[in-house]
């Protein structure tokens, strides 16, 4: 596996948010192989803006987010903007998010928009249209979604992703301490809720080939998974670095599926800013570390 800056086409993105004709899973596999397995978060919360010497304003948000996008977009497989940190500035913040997505995709990175949406019927379809339809100005390559209204409630998002060669990462085993109350609860057939989510993702990825387009979010600090993590799709793994997850944790939790792990790091990388070279160096080091797990 080679970890390098690569060309602007490593991820197969298009600046207009449209499909290249290849499913998200295939594009993600190519990007991870070319650039290393890393999803770099862009989380412009007030503390990081201050650390970069920026004001907690739309202007500070713009300088932070676009600076991170310009530095990281050319070198990482995927970038994950956290939508809430843009939305808190209203319409102007969302406009910055649109530009951030475009800059990352122009540079060849896939964009996983962290929105964690979950609803039913026409509302779920509206979310899908907003984030996964290339006609939308805020369309990304993939989104995060919450299944806790029932996995079937995500059908509009999965179908829209299939139509436009996008992806969906579904919350399954998260690192937050409140998560087990729901995720470890058992259903009538004795399976945990997390297991039913993973089983549903495995079904959604059936026949997809080397890597399906529907992934699970599984934290690096969950301890033992206790369920089968082989879903024939990618595993987005937040919680590494500043949040406490280590390489050893990832090796232990994801043994047998390490080639499908997409570690996600935000603060560890963003803390190296604002200088672009230091941001790139931090990202490349993290990517190389996790590439070595499967290399």
Automatic annotation (TrEMBL):
Annotated catalysed reactions: orotidine 5'-phosphate + H(+) = UMP + CO2
Annotated Pfam families: OMPdecase
Group of enzyme by EC: lyase
Pathway: Pyrimidine metabolism; UMP biosynthesis via de novo pathway; UMP from orotate: step 2/2
Classification via SMART domains: OMPdecase
Start-end of Low complexity biased regions: 1-13
Biological process per Gene Ontology, one example term: 'de novo' pyrimidine nucleobase biosynthetic process
Keywords: Decarboxylase, Lyase, Pyrimidine biosynthesis
Domain of life according to the entry: Bacteria
Domain (Orotidine 5'-phosphate decarboxylase): residue spans on this chain: 37-282
Annotated catalytic residues: 116 (proton donor)
GO molecular function: orotidine-5'-phosphate decarboxylase activity
EC number(s) given by UniProt: 4.1.1.23
SUPFAM superfamilies, A to Z: Ribulose-phoshate binding barrel
Family from the record: Belongs to the OMP decarboxylase family. Type 2 subfamily.
Name this polypeptide is given: Orotidine 5'-phosphate decarboxylase
Gene: pyrF
């Amino acid at each position: 596996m080679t970890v390098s800056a690569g060309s602007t086409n490593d991820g197969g993105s298009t600046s207009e948010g449209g499909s290249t004709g290849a499913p998200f899973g295939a594009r993600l596999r190519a990007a991870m192989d070319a650039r290393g397995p890393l999803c770099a978060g862009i989380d412009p919360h007030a503390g990081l803006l201050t650390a970069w010497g920026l004001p907690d304003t739309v202007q500070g948000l713009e300088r932070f987010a676009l600076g991170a996008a310009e530095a990281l977009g050319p070198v990482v497989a995927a970038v994950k903007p956290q939508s809430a940190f843009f939305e808190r500035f209203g319409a102007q913040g969302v406009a910055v998010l649109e530009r951030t997505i475009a800059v990352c995709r122009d540079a060849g990175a896939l964009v996983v928009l962290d929105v964690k949406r979950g609803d039913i019927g026409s509302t779920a379809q509206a979310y899908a249209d907003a984030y996964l339809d290339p006609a939308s100005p805020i369309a990304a390559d993939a989104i995060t979604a919450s299944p806790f209204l029932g996995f079937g409630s995500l059908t509009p998002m999965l179908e829209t992703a299939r139509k436009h060669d996008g992806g969906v990462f579904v919350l399954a085993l998260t690192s937050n301490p409140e998560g087990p109350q729901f995720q470890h609860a058992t259903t009538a057939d004795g399976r945990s809720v997390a297991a039913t989510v993973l089983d549903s993702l495995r079904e959604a990825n059936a026949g997809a080939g080397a890597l399906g387009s529907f992934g699970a979010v599984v934290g690096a600090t969950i301890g033992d998974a206790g369920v089968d993590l082989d879903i024939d799709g990618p595993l987005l793994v937040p919680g590494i670095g500043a949040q406490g997850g280590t390489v050893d944790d990832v090796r232990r939790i994801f043994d047998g599926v390490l080639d499908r792990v997409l570690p996600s790091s935000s603060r560890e990388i963003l803390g190296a800013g604002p200088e672009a070279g230091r941001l790139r160096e931090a990202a490349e080091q993290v990517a190389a570390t996790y590439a070595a797990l499967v290399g």
